[in-house]
Design a protein that fits this description.
Blueprint: E1 6-7, H1 8-12, H2 16-22, H3 24-51, H4 56-59, H5 73-82, E2 84-85, H6 100-128, H7 136-152, H8 161-165, H9 171-180, H10 183-209
Helix pairs in contact: 2-3, 3-6, 3-7, 6-7, 7-10
Length: about 220
């Protein structure tokens, strides 16, 4: 149910596939960062659902950080060709959760929260150990995780934020957001481009790493 969007057209202003021919090392760094961030993000959804009483994802082999369990073939192909893609949704049964309303909130929050946690841990390593001060992997990995956490927390379906925040909105607002359908993703992309990245993601990156965004 929780889609994972990697918006690299906006993140890096370049199609990821181009890096394979112009800078293979950076292609590898970003590719590994994407797979690791995606896997832990989706695993966190599955782990939270299982912890709260729903083993659906566990029975479908999603309670793992193995990227192969979370990749959608078509979404992955689009990611590497055009810079926009998604992973397989993590299934869960709302009515298996011990407290459905609270459980939906926690399962939805688990993915973005794991991205923030990875960014913070990586930032601590980056700031604490001089050996990692020039680590391109940590710099991109922190950036990827912050961007994905902020993006996924937008209260728009099918993003995780719709399960985290929609229940607190008035019925009229919820109905409007749900009717927006695919257009909500377009709005989310423009929001990230003009608001999310310059005013949320970049300041968070500097707060976590202690340096301005170097690209």
């Amino acid at each position: 149910m929780f889609l994972f969007f990697s918006i690299y057209v906006i993140l890096f202003k370049i199609m990821l596939i181009q890096l394979l021919f112009t800078d293979p090392l950076l292609f590898l760094i970003i590719g590994i960062g994407i797979l690791l961030a995606l896997s832990i993000h989706e695993y966190s959804h599955a782990q939270m659902a299982d912890f709260l009483g729903d083993p659906t994802a566990k029975y479908q082999g999603r309670l793992t950080i193995n990227p192969l369990a979370h990749l959608d073939p078509f979404g992955t192909l689009l990611l590497f060709l055009f810079g926009f893609g998604w992973g397989k949704p993590v299934p869960f049964n709302l009515y298996n959760l011990r407290n459905p309303k609270q459980g939906e909130f926690l399962v939805g929050l688990a993915g973005p929260l794991s991205n923030f946690l990875m960014a913070i841990i990586s930032g601590f390593i980056f700031r604490s150990f001089p050996f990692f001060k020039n680590s391109l992997f940590l710099i991109y990995f922190i950036w990827i995780n912050i961007a994905l956490a902020v993006f996924n927390l937008l209260p728009l379906p099918p993003l995780d934020g719709s399960y985290v925040f929609l229940n607190i909105f008035p019925p009229s607002v919820r109905k409007f957001i749900l009717l927006a359908g695919p257009f909500s993703v377009v709005f989310a992309l423009f929001f990230m481009l003009y608001v999310g990245f310059p005013f949320i993601v970049q300041p968070l990156f500097k707060l976590i790493t202690g340096i301005p965004l170097p690209f």
